[in-house]
Amino acid sequence: MKVAILDDWFDTLRTLDCFGRLAGHEVTIFHDHIQDVDILAGRLRDHEGLVLIRERTEIRAPLLARLPRLRLISQRSVFPHIDVEACTRAGIVVSSNLHAGSPSYATAELTWGLVLAAARQIPRQMASLRAGTWQSGVGHTLRSKTLGIYGYGRIGAVVAGYGRAFGMHVQVWGRPESLRRAVADGHMAATSRAELFGTSDVLTLHMRLVAATRGIVTAADLALMKPTALLVNTSRAGLVEPGALVAALRSGRPGGAALDVFEEEPLRDPDDPLLTMPGVVCTPHIGYVTRDEWELQFADVFDQINAYAAGTPINIVNPEALRSARHDERA
Q1: Boundaries of each D-isomer specific 2-hydroxyacid dehydrogenase catalytic domain copy (predicted)?
Q2: Labelling 270: which of 5, 190, 246, 327 has CA 20 to 30 A away?
Protein backbone atom coordinates (compact mmCIF):
# COMPACT_ATOMS: atom_id res chain seq x y z
CA MET A 1 0.00 0.00 0.00
CA LYS A 2 0.97 3.62 -0.46
CA VAL A 3 0.94 4.93 3.14
CA ALA A 4 1.22 8.48 4.50
CA ILE A 5 2.16 9.31 8.11
CA LEU A 6 1.21 12.76 9.43
CA ASP A 7 2.71 14.91 12.18
CA ASP A 8 5.89 12.96 12.94
CA TRP A 9 7.50 16.20 14.01
CA PHE A 10 10.93 14.87 14.96
CA ASP A 11 11.14 12.01 12.43
CA THR A 12 10.86 9.54 15.29
CA LEU A 13 8.84 6.71 13.79
CA ARG A 14 11.50 5.50 11.37
CA THR A 15 13.87 5.06 14.35
CA LEU A 16 11.51 2.65 16.13
CA ASP A 17 12.07 -1.10 15.97
CA CYS A 18 8.45 -1.62 14.95
CA PHE A 19 8.88 0.59 11.86
CA GLY A 20 10.27 -2.47 10.09
CA ARG A 21 6.72 -3.83 10.02
CA LEU A 22 6.00 -1.41 7.18
CA ALA A 23 8.61 -3.01 4.92
CA GLY A 24 7.02 -3.64 1.55
CA HIS A 25 4.77 -0.57 1.72
CA GLU A 26 5.56 2.76 0.09
CA VAL A 27 5.71 5.13 3.07
CA THR A 28 5.80 8.94 3.07
CA ILE A 29 6.32 10.76 6.38
CA PHE A 30 5.31 14.39 6.90
CA HIS A 31 7.10 16.23 9.70
CA ASP A 32 5.14 19.49 9.90
CA HIS A 33 1.65 20.13 11.23
CA ILE A 34 -0.88 21.16 8.61
CA GLN A 35 -4.63 21.48 9.05
CA ASP A 36 -5.35 23.31 5.79
CA VAL A 37 -7.64 21.08 3.71
CA ASP A 38 -6.21 22.17 0.36
CA ILE A 39 -2.66 21.36 1.39
CA LEU A 40 -3.60 18.05 2.99
CA ALA A 41 -5.66 17.03 -0.04
CA GLY A 42 -2.71 17.71 -2.29
CA ARG A 43 -0.36 15.70 -0.12
CA LEU A 44 -2.63 12.72 0.46
CA ARG A 45 -4.65 12.35 -2.74
CA ASP A 46 -2.64 9.37 -4.04
CA HIS A 47 -2.33 7.49 -0.74
CA GLU A 48 -4.32 4.41 0.18
CA GLY A 49 -3.38 4.27 3.86
CA LEU A 50 -3.11 7.06 6.42
CA VAL A 51 -1.36 6.82 9.79
CA LEU A 52 -2.33 9.37 12.43
CA ILE A 53 -0.38 10.22 15.55
CA ARG A 54 -3.26 10.38 17.97
CA GLU A 55 -5.30 13.59 17.56
CA ARG A 56 -2.75 15.93 16.04
CA THR A 57 -4.68 16.37 12.76
CA GLU A 58 -8.44 16.43 12.27
CA ILE A 59 -9.81 14.28 9.46
CA ARG A 60 -13.23 15.59 8.46
CA ALA A 61 -15.64 15.16 5.55
CA PRO A 62 -14.34 18.04 3.36
CA LEU A 63 -10.90 16.45 3.31
CA LEU A 64 -12.13 12.89 2.90
CA ALA A 65 -14.18 13.90 -0.13
CA ARG A 66 -10.93 14.86 -1.86
CA LEU A 67 -9.06 11.63 -1.15
CA PRO A 68 -10.47 9.20 -3.73
CA ARG A 69 -7.80 6.53 -3.19
CA LEU A 70 -7.88 6.42 0.60
CA ARG A 71 -8.93 3.02 1.93
CA LEU A 72 -7.65 2.88 5.52
CA ILE A 73 -6.97 5.18 8.47
CA SER A 74 -4.83 3.47 11.10
CA GLN A 75 -4.19 4.85 14.58
CA ARG A 76 -4.44 3.94 18.25
CA SER A 77 -6.83 4.98 21.03
CA VAL A 78 -9.89 7.24 20.79
CA PHE A 79 -10.83 9.13 17.63
CA PRO A 80 -12.80 12.35 18.24
CA HIS A 81 -10.68 13.96 15.50
CA ILE A 82 -11.98 11.59 12.79
CA ASP A 83 -15.37 11.91 11.10
CA VAL A 84 -16.11 8.20 11.28
CA GLU A 85 -19.52 8.53 9.63
CA ALA A 86 -17.97 10.28 6.64
CA CYS A 87 -15.33 7.56 6.47
CA THR A 88 -18.03 4.90 6.47
CA ARG A 89 -19.96 6.59 3.67
CA ALA A 90 -16.76 6.77 1.64
CA GLY A 91 -15.81 3.16 2.30
CA ILE A 92 -12.74 4.11 4.34
CA VAL A 93 -11.98 1.68 7.15
CA VAL A 94 -10.90 3.19 10.47
CA SER A 95 -8.74 0.80 12.49
CA SER A 96 -7.88 1.80 16.06
CA ASN A 97 -6.86 -0.41 18.95
CA LEU A 98 -8.59 1.01 22.02
CA HIS A 99 -6.29 -1.04 24.33
CA ALA A 100 -9.00 -1.62 26.92
CA GLY A 101 -6.71 -3.51 29.28
CA SER A 102 -3.66 -1.26 29.23
CA PRO A 103 -3.36 2.29 30.59
CA SER A 104 -0.85 4.78 29.23
CA TYR A 105 1.75 4.51 31.95
CA ALA A 106 3.75 7.20 30.17
CA THR A 107 0.90 9.69 30.68
CA ALA A 108 0.44 8.65 34.30
CA GLU A 109 4.15 9.11 34.96
CA LEU A 110 4.17 12.56 33.35
CA THR A 111 1.14 13.50 35.44
CA TRP A 112 3.08 12.73 38.57
CA GLY A 113 6.15 14.48 37.23
CA LEU A 114 4.07 17.63 36.75
CA VAL A 115 2.64 17.32 40.27
CA LEU A 116 6.14 17.15 41.75
CA ALA A 117 7.47 19.90 39.49
CA ALA A 118 4.68 22.25 40.53
CA ALA A 119 4.70 21.36 44.24
CA ARG A 120 8.46 21.87 44.54
CA GLN A 121 8.64 24.73 42.00
CA ILE A 122 11.28 22.84 40.03
CA PRO A 123 11.20 24.99 36.85
CA ARG A 124 11.41 28.17 38.92
CA GLN A 125 14.25 26.80 41.04
CA MET A 126 16.16 25.73 37.93
CA ALA A 127 15.76 29.19 36.41
CA SER A 128 16.99 30.78 39.65
CA LEU A 129 20.02 28.51 39.77
CA ARG A 130 20.92 29.26 36.15
CA ALA A 131 20.57 32.97 36.88
CA GLY A 132 23.12 32.67 39.69
CA THR A 133 20.68 33.53 42.47
CA TRP A 134 20.57 30.06 44.15
CA GLN A 135 17.21 29.24 45.80
CA SER A 136 13.93 30.94 44.86
CA GLY A 137 10.80 30.49 46.93
CA VAL A 138 9.55 27.61 49.08
CA GLY A 139 7.59 24.63 47.79
CA HIS A 140 5.10 22.23 49.36
CA THR A 141 5.23 18.66 50.63
CA LEU A 142 2.68 16.22 49.21
CA ARG A 143 2.52 13.80 52.12
CA SER A 144 -0.76 14.03 54.12
CA LYS A 145 -2.30 16.31 51.49
CA THR A 146 -5.46 15.36 49.57
CA LEU A 147 -5.20 14.19 45.98
CA GLY A 148 -8.43 14.47 43.98
CA ILE A 149 -8.93 12.26 40.93
CA TYR A 150 -11.70 13.33 38.57
CA GLY A 151 -12.29 10.29 36.37
CA TYR A 152 -11.17 6.93 37.75
CA GLY A 153 -10.35 5.10 34.54
CA ARG A 154 -7.17 3.33 33.54
CA ILE A 155 -4.83 6.31 33.95
CA GLY A 156 -6.67 7.79 36.93
CA ALA A 157 -6.30 4.53 38.84
CA VAL A 158 -2.54 4.46 38.22
CA VAL A 159 -2.14 8.08 39.35
CA ALA A 160 -4.18 7.32 42.48
CA GLY A 161 -1.66 4.60 43.27
CA TYR A 162 1.20 7.07 42.92
CA GLY A 163 -0.59 9.42 45.32
CA ARG A 164 -0.99 6.66 47.87
CA ALA A 165 2.72 5.79 47.57
CA PHE A 166 3.54 9.43 48.40
CA GLY A 167 1.37 9.32 51.51
CA MET A 168 -1.51 11.38 50.14
CA HIS A 169 -5.18 10.94 50.94
CA VAL A 170 -6.86 10.00 47.66
CA GLN A 171 -10.45 10.94 46.87
CA VAL A 172 -12.25 10.25 43.62
CA TRP A 173 -15.21 11.61 41.70
CA GLY A 174 -16.73 10.25 38.51
CA ARG A 175 -19.38 7.90 37.27
CA PRO A 176 -20.98 5.55 39.84
CA GLU A 177 -19.13 2.51 38.48
CA SER A 178 -15.85 4.44 38.71
CA LEU A 179 -16.54 5.33 42.32
CA ARG A 180 -17.26 1.71 43.15
CA ARG A 181 -13.93 0.65 41.62
CA ALA A 182 -12.09 3.37 43.52
CA VAL A 183 -13.60 2.34 46.85
CA ALA A 184 -12.79 -1.31 46.11
CA ASP A 185 -9.19 -0.21 45.52
CA GLY A 186 -9.09 1.41 48.96
CA HIS A 187 -9.64 5.05 48.01
CA MET A 188 -12.28 7.48 49.21
CA ALA A 189 -15.24 8.53 47.09
CA ALA A 190 -15.96 12.24 47.43
CA THR A 191 -19.48 12.86 48.71
CA SER A 192 -20.06 15.38 45.93
CA ARG A 193 -18.37 17.10 43.04
CA ALA A 194 -18.24 20.28 45.13
CA GLU A 195 -16.35 18.43 47.86
CA LEU A 196 -13.84 17.16 45.31
CA PHE A 197 -13.07 20.66 44.07
CA GLY A 198 -13.30 22.33 47.46
CA THR A 199 -11.10 19.99 49.50
CA SER A 200 -8.45 18.67 47.09
CA ASP A 201 -4.94 20.06 47.42
CA VAL A 202 -4.05 18.54 44.05
CA LEU A 203 -6.85 17.83 41.57
CA THR A 204 -6.04 15.91 38.40
CA LEU A 205 -8.37 15.27 35.45
CA HIS A 206 -8.49 11.86 33.77
CA MET A 207 -11.41 11.66 31.34
CA ARG A 208 -11.83 11.17 27.64
CA LEU A 209 -12.98 14.19 25.70
CA VAL A 210 -16.41 13.35 24.29
CA ALA A 211 -19.56 15.41 23.90
CA ALA A 212 -20.66 14.66 27.47
CA THR A 213 -17.33 15.73 29.02
CA ARG A 214 -16.53 18.79 26.92
CA GLY A 215 -16.45 21.76 29.31
CA ILE A 216 -17.36 19.51 32.23
CA VAL A 217 -15.07 21.55 34.53
CA THR A 218 -16.67 24.97 34.83
CA ALA A 219 -15.63 28.35 36.18
CA ALA A 220 -17.88 27.67 39.17
CA ASP A 221 -16.01 24.43 39.89
CA LEU A 222 -12.64 26.16 39.77
CA ALA A 223 -13.87 28.94 42.05
CA LEU A 224 -14.40 26.30 44.77
CA MET A 225 -10.73 25.33 44.81
CA LYS A 226 -8.31 26.43 47.53
CA PRO A 227 -5.94 29.34 46.85
CA THR A 228 -3.15 26.85 47.55
CA ALA A 229 -4.55 24.08 45.32
CA LEU A 230 -3.09 22.77 42.08
CA LEU A 231 -5.12 21.73 39.02
CA VAL A 232 -3.43 19.14 36.80
CA ASN A 233 -4.56 18.30 33.28
CA THR A 234 -2.78 15.74 31.12
CA SER A 235 -5.99 14.57 29.45
CA ARG A 236 -7.55 17.18 27.17
CA ALA A 237 -7.89 20.95 27.46
CA GLY A 238 -11.47 20.74 26.24
CA LEU A 239 -12.53 19.19 29.54
CA VAL A 240 -12.33 22.70 31.01
CA GLU A 241 -14.76 25.42 29.98
CA PRO A 242 -12.99 27.67 27.42
CA GLY A 243 -11.17 30.54 29.08
CA ALA A 244 -12.19 29.44 32.58
CA LEU A 245 -8.77 28.27 33.73
CA VAL A 246 -6.91 31.47 32.88
CA ALA A 247 -9.63 33.53 34.57
CA ALA A 248 -9.56 31.27 37.64
CA LEU A 249 -5.79 31.46 37.97
CA ARG A 250 -5.92 35.24 37.71
CA SER A 251 -8.50 35.32 40.50
CA GLY A 252 -6.34 33.07 42.68
CA ARG A 253 -8.46 29.90 42.80
CA PRO A 254 -6.77 27.55 42.20
CA GLY A 255 -3.34 28.88 43.04
CA GLY A 256 -1.57 26.96 40.30
CA ALA A 257 -1.86 24.56 37.40
CA ALA A 258 0.25 21.88 35.77
CA LEU A 259 -0.70 21.29 32.15
CA ASP A 260 0.28 19.10 29.22
CA VAL A 261 -2.71 20.01 27.02
CA PHE A 262 -4.00 23.27 25.55
CA GLU A 263 -7.06 24.63 23.78
CA GLU A 264 -4.95 25.22 20.66
CA GLU A 265 -2.22 22.78 19.72
CA PRO A 266 0.56 23.08 18.79
CA LEU A 267 0.83 26.10 21.08
CA ARG A 268 3.52 28.35 19.64
CA ASP A 269 2.67 31.70 21.21
CA PRO A 270 5.24 32.39 23.94
CA ASP A 271 2.99 35.17 25.24
CA ASP A 272 0.06 32.84 25.91
CA PRO A 273 -1.13 33.56 29.49
CA LEU A 274 -0.60 29.96 30.57
CA LEU A 275 3.06 30.19 29.58
CA THR A 276 3.68 33.44 31.42
CA MET A 277 1.92 32.88 34.76
CA PRO A 278 4.44 32.08 37.53
CA GLY A 279 2.20 29.45 39.14
CA VAL A 280 1.80 27.33 36.01
CA VAL A 281 4.02 24.47 34.86
CA CYS A 282 3.55 23.46 31.24
CA THR A 283 4.76 20.75 28.87
CA PRO A 284 3.91 20.46 25.12
CA HIS A 285 1.51 17.47 25.12
CA ILE A 286 4.20 14.87 25.75
CA GLY A 287 2.20 12.62 28.07
CA TYR A 288 2.25 9.66 25.69
CA VAL A 289 5.46 10.65 23.90
CA THR A 290 8.10 8.21 25.08
CA ARG A 291 10.06 5.74 22.99
CA ASP A 292 8.65 2.81 24.99
CA GLU A 293 5.07 3.99 24.57
CA TRP A 294 5.53 4.64 20.86
CA GLU A 295 6.97 1.18 20.27
CA LEU A 296 3.83 -0.23 21.86
CA GLN A 297 1.41 2.07 20.07
CA PHE A 298 2.84 1.96 16.59
CA ALA A 299 3.36 -1.78 16.60
CA ASP A 300 -0.45 -1.89 16.77
CA VAL A 301 -0.87 0.84 14.15
CA PHE A 302 1.47 -0.85 11.66
CA ASP A 303 -0.03 -4.30 12.32
CA GLN A 304 -3.42 -2.83 11.41
CA ILE A 305 -2.03 -1.74 8.03
CA ASN A 306 -0.59 -5.17 7.34
CA ALA A 307 -3.80 -6.88 8.38
CA TYR A 308 -5.82 -4.69 6.03
CA ALA A 309 -3.37 -5.25 3.16
CA ALA A 310 -3.69 -9.01 3.76
CA GLY A 311 -7.48 -8.78 3.50
CA THR A 312 -8.09 -9.44 7.21
CA PRO A 313 -8.55 -6.00 8.80
CA ILE A 314 -8.47 -5.77 12.60
CA ASN A 315 -9.61 -3.32 15.30
CA ILE A 316 -12.25 -1.95 12.94
CA VAL A 317 -14.20 1.02 14.29
CA ASN A 318 -16.67 1.13 11.38
CA PRO A 319 -17.26 -2.36 9.95
CA GLU A 320 -20.00 -0.95 7.72
CA ALA A 321 -17.26 0.58 5.58
CA LEU A 322 -16.22 -2.88 4.47
CA ARG A 323 -19.58 -3.29 2.78
CA SER A 324 -19.63 0.03 0.96
CA ALA A 325 -19.48 0.34 -2.80
CA ARG A 326 -16.34 2.41 -2.69
CA HIS A 327 -14.44 -0.25 -0.79
CA ASP A 328 -15.74 -3.01 -3.06
CA GLU A 329 -14.48 -1.21 -6.13
CA ARG A 330 -10.98 -1.03 -4.68
CA ALA A 331 -10.79 -4.56 -3.33
Answers
A1: 23-318
A2: 5
